[in-house]
Write a structure and sequence with these properties.
about 190 residues
């Protein structure tokens, strides 16, 4: 028996949330200090996005195991993270790193994910604030969507339709079609 097995679920949720927030803040602080103090290196520029992606992917796998996020959403986000990392690495190897530099939309997506994931980790309501509902909504909010291309949205919609047809529960019980454009929403 591990020590945290004796803790109740609310305590585990709180600790998971605190650990994620501290890891996110220290990652941000490290990058900010490096830029502010002129201590940027090529290795740091390579490893910082890798650390961000690992943090997000590990949290998504944990949320998937806890049944707090839909597998289709987690797969799409993880697929995007791996694809973008591979693309950046390839572009850097051919000397075109600036053509895939992080833009403001990527920063917004990361910020939204870094707020949504702790809400999903905490899970329990805080007064009248439903962490699960808002975390689910934010993780599928358009800027945090893994891709702005309609094909990704359609694939997620098809996955949701397949789950529904198979008699499985919807991705987000509180908001089953959150984040999908009206014309792509699943009608039950």
């Amino acid at each position: 028996m591990l020590p945290f097995d004796a803790w109740g679920e609310p305590s585990r949720n709180l600790w998971a949330t605190v650990i994620f927030i501290v890891a996110s803040l220290t990652d941000w602080l490290d990058g900010w200090l490096a830029r502010r103090l002129g201590q940027q290196t090529e290795l740091g520029a390579f490893l910082d996005p890798v650390a961000d992606k690992l943090l997000v992917c590990v949290a998504l796998v944990m949320l998937l195991d806890l049944d707090r996020i839909n597998a289709g959403i987690a797969i799409i986000i993880i697929r995007r993270e791996i694809t973008i990392s591979a693309l950046r690495e390839w572009m850097a190897s051919i000397g075109a790193r600036k053509s895939v530099a992080v833009n403001w939309m990527g920063k917004v997506k990361t910020a939204v994910q870094m707020v949504a994931i702790p809400l999903l980790l905490y899970h329990d309501p805080i007064g009248q604030f439903d962490c699960q509902y808002w975390g689910s909504w934010m993780i599928t909010w358009p800027p945090s969507r893994p891709s702005s291309r309609w094909s990704t949205t359609c694939k997620a919609g098809l996955a949701a339709a397949a789950r529904s047809a198979a008699g499985l529960k919807p991705a987000f019980p509180a908001c089953p079609d959150a984040g999908f454009p009206r014309r792509h929403r699943i009608v039950h």
